[in-house]
Write a structure and sequence with these properties.
Length: about 300
């Protein structure tokens, strides 16, 4: 099975139309049909169901698709890695990041990276932690940058923490607590907590911390996006606990007030993760090196 057949299969699996696939692949429709038939014969299964004028992936086709994606992505990565060994003025850096990391923490690091490697194309995918793990497993990205609270198979993945992120309580400037230099958990007994939905690693961490402290928030308001959470606090919908790094501008402009909680600290590590058996490209190693330097600077 060659690269051309795999690419044909993946293109057809996306558009589910032979004519459109042929146009995208710059070949004839019969050529697309022949390559798919050849793959089906080689695998011994049907990859597509042809029902009337419509095309559908079979169950076997759906199961084969992630493997095809992995093989294609691995070949692209190999080509990039080999060329980068000779010349780091060429190539693509592909990695995934969680929302907080990609939006707030990495831009200034990527600025330094772009100055050092101006011709490397940066492809950062910002999405949920569960989707990031899937992307790493299917080799769509070289590595991930996310919270160390995300669970994963430690036997398969290497993980290194490069930044310790402090989470802080935030309120609207008109909130009664805003006038206090410090508050207690008892002060929060009647507050609405604005928090991410159940599957969020940050929420899991905070709920675990609350349980450890014997505190149960009376009411939750769920918002999946950190910017949405900040706006909800600004508009007096409740209080929240978020990354100190992510609220610097709002605090500076007086839109949000952060308040220490007496006797309590909320922290999480930010780490990069990659396959233990994977050889990172020179482009990826360049960014990892900057992340390690970021850790050294912020740990002084």
């Amino acid at each position: 099975m060659n690269f051309s057949k795999l690419q044909t299969f993946l293109t057809l699996s996306e558009c589910l139309n032979f004519t459109e696939a042929a146009e995208l692949l710059y070949c004839s429709q019969p050529s697309v049909s022949m390559q798919i038939q050849s793959m089906e014969a080689e695998l011994g299964v049907l990859l597509f169901d042809r029902i009337g004028k419509k095309l559908y992936l079979t169950k076997q086709g759906e199961e084969f698709k992630p493997y095809a994606e992995q093989m294609i992505n691995l070949l692209h990565s190999a080509k990039d890695h080999i060329r980068q060994l000779e010349d780091l003025s060429y190539g693509t850096l592909s990695f995934g990041a969680s929302n907080f990391v990609g939006v707030y923490l990495l831009p200034m690091i990527l600025r330094n990276y772009s100055k050092t490697f101006p011709n490397i194309k940066i492809n950062m995918s910002i999405t949920s932690s569960s989707h990031l793990i899937h992307m790493l497993e299917s080799n769509k990205v070289e590595f991930l940058v996310l919270s160390d609270r995300v669970s994963m198979d430690e036997s398969r993945f290497e993980r290194k923490t490069f930044y310790e992120d402090e989470l802080v309580l935030i309120v609207n400037p008109l909130h009664p607590l805003a006038a206090k230099p410090v508050c207690t958990l008892q002060d929060l007994a009647n507050e609405t907590f604005i928090i991410k939905p159940d599957k969020s690693a940050t929420r899991s961490y905070l709920e675990g911390k609350f349980e450890e402290l014997g505190f149960t928030p009376p009411k939750y308001l769920e918002i999946s996006n950190l910017e949405g959470i900040k706006q909800a606090v600004i508009h007096e919908l409740g209080v929240s606990i978020v990354s100190n790094f992510a609220i610097q501008q709002e605090v500076k402009h007086g839109l949000i007030v952060k308040i220490p909680v007496k006797g309590v600290t909320f922290t999480r590590g930010i780490c990069y993760v990659y396959h233990r058996q994977k050889h990172l490209s020179p482009a990826a190693k360049g960014l990892v090196s900057l992340l390690d330097q970021f850790y050294d600077v912020n740990s002084d």
